Amino acid sequence: MTTSTSPAPATPPTEHTLNDGTSLPAVGFGTYPLKGEDGIRAMTTALEAGYRLLDTAVNYENEAEVGEAFRRSGVPRDELVVQTKVPGRDHAYDRAVASVEGSLERLGLDHVDVAVIHWPNPSRGLYVEAYRALVACRERGLVRSVGVSNFTEAHLRDVIDATGVVPAVNQVEMHPLFPQEALRRVHERLGVLTEAWSPLGKRSAPFGADPVAAAAEAHGVTPAQVILRWHLQLGSLPLPKSGDAERQRANLDVLDGFGEGLTAEEMDAITALGRPDGRLFGGDPETHEEM
Prior knowledge:
By secondary structure, the protein is an alpha/beta fold.
């Protein structure tokens, strides 16, 4: 049985206040796999469209492009949120600190707004040390907020028990086919913001599924906008990626161009599309390793 997602707020907030007192925009821009001059142009048009959160990672190999897009855009630094990720190969304490320092050098910034651990890689057993390193980087002013990515409830409790610092965010796979209902309840109890990678579901995006298609027709919007609005009304922060300027603007338009939003019944019907095998590539954090 699907747990009801109602009541859904008719007007989601335009930003999220994190547990450390800082804030993030309600929608971010995913940068994987944007690289090179084409990637810089895509990121620049995203910033021109109004995105203010750029999500990158060491393993995306595009931090330099993110920094260049920021400089070309002319967006003031205090309006920009840059989020990056420490890879599994750098989970040892000193290596994690060096990873953050390397990211800053490639980005051309004096601090990163959000730094997260990319995957827990539990077989190595070093994610707690990596998290300690991020907390130390925050104390040095290299990082504004610390978080994690692809962590389970057990992984979250491990880092909280070890450091006393609750991650500000947990970036996880989340889309209608994998709505992360149980983990979102954990996040709500702990005060962790859910960020959604692959928020539309990539090639598996259920654009033609009845609940999505019907809502798109009823509200006069696209199926992608329906799914992104579903994220906003659930309280998650989606990170859609597109190299197309028109789609970038459409993805951002769900903030204020959606009328009264999805009804509770529409929300529940979309969430009901979820299935146990809904992951895009079987990326179970208990077993998936990414160095």
